[in-house]
Design a protein that fits this description.
By secondary structure, the chain is an alpha+beta fold. Helices cover 32% and strands 30% of the residues.
């Protein structure tokens, strides 16, 4: 079997991703952003406030985006305001919108900004299935599962990776590029995807915890020497069928420490990578999680 030059393959992937992104930008400029839309709104008597921001899809550890894209349009007529929120496809196959941030010269009396449902922060959504319906005689598309979309909207706050800080960190401490490290990071990301899908089916919210959270926060990636994936869940969201759900997803249970009432921890394994699920307990204004040392059985809090 002929050997493939990895540099050539990587270059092709970068080129194809760039072409896809440029097509999206072209589509916006040609169809959504054409002057005819804004002109038609003005002819109807609407006042327009455009809010723009940097395009995060062009940012990476090596390149910081300088391209600005439309994030929100506010259309005002007779004291009523219509907020148009632009959703952009991100590489993880989800939809993203930016935060609504006013420039120094912006008219702060244009709209009741604190009352707007979207824009307090950036948000992300699963791509919804849309259905056509009629509203006040107009054909419009709405999410097929409206309740799920509204539930996502309440918990959709998105934190962008800190590319500048990660870039500076990796300049001092470069990522391990050995074959073993690259393979682990690939497996860890795959395991995290499986965990996210499984917990979504159970309707259990979770967050990145411990070393996995540190890797994202510090270097926008997976710490190769951590050797596992860590997530956190509030004990109030625990379900008795969680073990069966992960087994059905192809993972095997490695450890079960503690009890539901105190310091529960579950560990699963897939493809030689361990997934640690830490359960967090609320005690007044304090949140804590317990731990158990596998060899000695010692408990920590």
């Amino acid at each position: 079997m002929p050997r493939v030059n990895r540099t050539i393959v990587l270059s092709l992937l970068v080129i194809s991703s760039s072409v896809f992104l440029l097509f999206q930008l072209y589509y916006y400029r040609k169809y959504v952003g054409k002057p005819g839309f804004l002109l038609a709104a003005e002819q109807k008597g609407f006042e327009l406030l455009q809010l723009r921001g940097e395009d995060p899809r062009l940012a990476s550890l090596d390149t910081l985006s300088g391209e600005e894209i439309p994030l929100h349009f506010l259309l005002r007529l007779n004291g009523h305001v219509i907020q148009v929120v632009f959703l952009y496809e991100r590489s993880g196959n989800y939809l993203w919108h930016g935060a609504l941030r006013l420039r120094a010269h912006a008219d702060r009396s244009f709209a009741p900004f604190k009352m707007l449902d979207y824009g307090r922060h950036a948000g992300v959504y699963d791509r919804p299935q849309l259905v056509l319906t009629v509203l006040d005689g107009l054909d419009v598309q709405v999410p097929h599962n409206i309740s799920r979309f509204l539930s996502e909207q309440r918990h959709a706050r998105f934190l962008e990776c800190r590319y500048r800080d990660a870039h500076n960190f990796l300049q001092l401490f470069p990522d391990d590029s050995s074959a073993a490290a690259v393979d682990f990071r690939r497996k860890a990301k795959s395991l995290l995807h499986v965990a996210a899908r499984t917990l979504a089916l159970l309707d259990i919210p979770f967050w990145l915890s411990s070393g996995t959270c540190l890797g994202w926060f510090r270097q926008c990636g997976i710490i190769s020497y951590s050797r596992d994936v860590d997530v956190g869940i509030f004990i109030r969201d625990f379900r008795w069928d969680i073990v069966a759900a992960f087994r059905n997803a192809g993972l095997s249970l490695k450890h079960k420490f503690g009890k539901v009432e105190d310091s529960l921890e579950l560990s699963f394994v897939s493809d030689d990578v361990k997934l640690d699920i830490f359960f967090f307990y609320e005690d007044g204004d304090i949140v804590w999680n317990g731990g158990t040392q596998a060899k000695s059985g010692k408990k920590f809090k």
